[in-house]
Design goal:
Layout lengths: L7 H18 L6 H45 L7
Protein name: DUF2164 domain-containing protein
Organism: Brevundimonas nasdae
Length: 83
């Protein structure tokens, strides 16, 4: 599976968050290189699970919106007068 790729700016922001998390929550200092290695591991090994979940959530949202549109269109239908 191809790892999720991030721009240089995105990588810097993500590794900063990882380093902050380790310091705040685990009381561990995480260097820049280990943070980048952790990001590479996450994007390669488990990134697809997050990606697939996002795709699934988007599919459900689009399906719900399509159903809402169909219902709205039914609401616009007019009944032909009977003679």
């Amino acid at each position: 599976m191809k790892p999720i790729e991030f721009s240089k700016e995105e990588r810097a922001a993500i590794t900063a968050k990882l380093r902050d998390y380790f310091a705040r929550e685990l009381d561990q200092e995480l260097g820049q290189l280990p943070a980048e290695m952790l990001l590479d591991f996450i994007s390669k090994e488990i990134g697809s699970a997050f990606y697939n979940r996002g795709v699934h959530d988007a599919q459900q949202l689009v399906q719900q919106k399509a159903e809402d549109i169909v219902e709205a269109l039914y609401g616009l239908e007019r009944v032909a007068p009977t003679r």
